[in-house]
Specification:
The protein is mainly α. The protein contains 15 helices and two strands. The protein is globular. 41% of the residues are buried.
């Protein structure tokens, strides 16, 4: 097993990314536009927060009186939760929302508002996933998950033969596990491994923020509704769980097909820790776009159907991905590099399910 410090990419010379970076820079300069958020992004921010906060306000104010309306509010909040995560929080924590650091930080903490923890997410996503995409035991998004096998190098278990069926149920638990388990275990792990120092913070500060914001979140989402409203605790808990099931499923089916699907690769470093390709080429080999023509879908999912553009330029706000995608595709073709883009979201899900089935078949991965 290689440590993170021992893994290195092939050196960059006058290669694909050098040329691409120049072309992307020229695109923004010639159009005289910022790489960061624009009016469209600000409108979307208000919309996504509205999806989450308006139903909550209706709920907590007692305006909602029937169980059906209460459940509907929680479902809409689940959609809003996913929307904040896919669009607002995601760009902000990549520093792609504003040139002002405090704006990115404040909007990045919207993850804490919806039950997560901004700092552990930044380490897992920005540092580990974006740097070591699809590298076994370095990219935690595909590292051993026990009941799910998401990479060929992960240990195989007999239950994995059925993962292409039960994975969809487990996806509903994504955000719930994050709220109650994963943030705690990840923060402890990152503290032990010294990864918090890469984010210029301390363990004491992050533990304080995590505990305070988790308690505040549970106070707002469970304690106050159970105390103020006429609904039973079990009804409130059912709505809360349904909200997270909706959000977890939505987030999973957007992120998973981009990297865990037929056609994407799982490069492994050699004995010295060196990878065959440069970082940018590695991103092309491990990432897939989907549904580029679905404008509303792309708008709602934070442009993450343009996952290649996001991985190559995470510091560019996602509202620009659709315009720079042809530049990336053309440059990749000039360098005879793959640029995987599936025509529909449905096809992406099919290839993801097919790959899960293949990964679940031990002999199929030999």
């Amino acid at each position: 097993m290689h440590t993170l410090k021992s893994i290195s990419f092939a050196p960059v010379q006058k290669d694909f990314f050098t040329v691409l970076n120049q072309r992307i820079h020229r695109h923004f300069k010639e159009k005289n536009i910022s790489r960061l958020a624009n009016t469209e992004m600000m409108v979307k921010t208000v919309f996504m927060f509205g999806l989450y906060l308006v139903p909550y306000t209706l709920l907590i104010s007692g305006t909602v009186t029937s169980v059906a309306a209460m459940i509907t509010c929680f479902v809409v909040m689940g959609i809003g939760l996913a929307g904040i995560g896919l669009s607002v929080m995601h760009d902000a924590n990549h520093g792609a929302y504003s040139k002002k650091k405090w704006v990115n930080t404040a909007l990045g903490y919207s993850l804490n508002l919806i039950g997560g923890h901004s700092m552990t997410w930044k380490v897992q996503h920005n540092v580990l996933h974006h740097t070591y995409t699809n590298i076994h035991e370095a990219d935690e998004d595909i590292s051993p998950r026990g009941v799910l096998r998401l990479a060929p190098a992960s240990p195989w278990k007999p239950a994995h033969r059925f993962q292409h069926w039960y994975a969809w149920i487990l996806y509903c638990l994504l955000t719930l596990v994050w709220v109650f388990v994963k943030d705690f275990t990840r923060l402890h792990k990152y503290q032990r491994e010294g990864l918090l120092r890469t984010q210029h913070t301390t363990a004491r500060r992050e533990w304080a923020i995590l505990i305070f914001t988790k308690l505040f979140y549970l106070l707002c989402m469970i304690v106050l509704p159970a105390w103020l409203l006429h609904f039973s605790v079990w009804q409130i808990l059912a709505g809360f769980l349904l909200m997270h099931a909706v959000a977890g499923f939505m987030l999973s089916v957007i992120f998973q097909p981009a990297h865990v699907a037929e056609g994407t690769e799982y490069p492994m470093p050699d004995a010295s820790g060196r990878l065959e390709n440069s970082w940018a080429v590695h991103q092309l080999l491990t990432t897939t776009n989907f549904a580029p023509s679905a404008r509303f879908f792309s708008w709602f999912v934070g442009g993450l159907n343009y996952q290649i553009e996001h991985h190559l330029f995470p510091n560019i706000c996602h509202v620009h991905y659709r315009k720079i995608a042809p530049i990336v595709a053309r440059t990749a073709a000039e360098f005879n590099l793959p640029y995987r883009s599936l025509p529909s979201f449905r096809q992406a899900l099919v290839l993801h399910a097919r790959h899960l089935k293949r990964l679940g078949n031990q002999t199929g991965m030999a």
